[in-house]
Design goal:
The protein is built from three helices and no strands. The chain has 88 residues and is mainly α. The longest helix is centred in the N-terminal third of the chain and has 49 residues. The protein starts with a helix and ends with a helix.
Length: 88
Amino acid sequence: MNISIVFSYLLGLVILYLVARLLLVPLRVIARLLINGIIGGLLLAAFNLVGANFGLYLAINPITVLVAGMLGVPGVLLLAAVRYIVMG
């Protein structure tokens, strides 16, 4: 077997590995954002259920869902504080 063919196969495998890595990293980020968004939506829904007794309500839209999903409970409290400050 010719040595140039072996090196060509090795170079092809390295390039294939690098392309696969470049394609998988964005998928992980998208999956993480999707999971955090679902968790954020659930947190906001729970806040709205509990807050209905006290007259508190937070809108459920993509921005608030991502903030709540990324920051968790402190994010929901932050959204409630910002709404209180802005709305009075």
